[in-house]
Amino acid sequence: MRTIVEYSSDPIWKIGRGTGEPFQITGKIRYPEDRIYYQPGALEVLKNSWIQYLSVLLVTWYLFLKCWSYLITSRILSSRVVIDKVPILTGSKRHAF
To answer: Which of 5, 24, 4, 7 has the alpha carbon at shortest distance from 16?
Structure first.
């Protein structure tokens, strides 16, 4: 039994591009359109919602602190310190629980 293998010295694709040009293939893939319905579970919804809540909270808190510090330092809002004075003669405590 003898096997003969022949090799051709001519390339299969001769026309269409040079040796330095990229190889391009164009074509169409046809597939049927299908609808996929997915309902996430409760834990997945909670995971996504707390991340969104935290991101909105951090941005809102940062903007609130910047606005508040601007209003106080530029004296647009007035502030004062009030010290509660408790009469010592009545025998009452300074704290209440």
So the answer is: 24
Count of CB atoms situated within 10 Å of the CB of 74: 8
- Can you tell me the distance from the alpha carbon of 89 to that of 80, in angstroms, rounded to the nearest whole number? 27
pLDDT of the residue at 22: 78
Q: Extract the tokens encoding 81.
A: 């310190």
What single-letter amino acid sits at 56? V
Give the model confidence (pLDDT) of 34-75 as tens digits: 899 999 999 999 999 999 999 999 999 999 999 999 998 888
Q: What is the CA radius of gyration of the chain?
A: 39
Residue pair 23/17 in contact by the 8 Å Cβ criterion: yes
Maximum CA pair distance of the chain? 125
